[in-house]
Amino acid sequence: MYGVGGRVEDYLRGQGVAPFFTIGDTYGEVYERMLAILERLDPSELDSRPERRAAISEMAAGSLGSPFLDVDATVDAYCAQYNSEKPTDVDKLVELHIKAVLEWLQALTMLDHDGNAMSNRPEASERSGAVEPETEARHQQSALS
User: Which of 15, 18, 46, 82 is 20 to 30 A off residue 145, Cα-Cα?
Assistant: First the structure.
């Protein structure tokens, strides 16, 4: 679309990008939740964010700052854990990726500041057939470091 008339909103609507903005907003909310949880587990995390961001900026193109940025790898692991088939539809793939990340974050909320399971959280024992939350959370937390 070329020209000087029209509005950006109309152009974007015509391009069909609204669903991508929605997905971006959802990932933004997940990211904010992740930061809050990680900062609760490690209060010094807030102080190290500038250095981490700088390190990520210096990474080679194609490198990942977190294993959770790899949608396919995260969904593959999630499907293997729950013995389910990986979706081929992009919308379903993104939905399952977000679900996997949110489950990991839920597991992190069951840890104390030292990364140990909080025994007074009954929901920790209610997860059936899944990896122990503290094991999975420690693994994921170290992968983010």
Answer: 82
* Residue carrying structure tokens 């015509």: 14
Tokens matching residue 132: 């122990």
How many structural domains does the chain have? 1
Q: Name the DSSP letter for residue 86.
A: P
Give the separation between CA 107 and CA 45, rounded to whole angstroms: 18
Are 141 and 113 within 8 A, CB to CB?
no
Domain residues for 54?
8-144
Q: What is the pLDDT along the chain (145 residues), one digit of tens a residue?
A: 566 778 888 888 899 999 999 999 999 999 899 888 888 887 777 677 788 777 777 777 767 667 778 899 999 999 999 999 999 999 999 999 999 999 988 888 886 666 677 754 444 333 333 334 444 444 444 444 4
Tokens of 18: 């609204």
| Domain assignment present for 2 | no
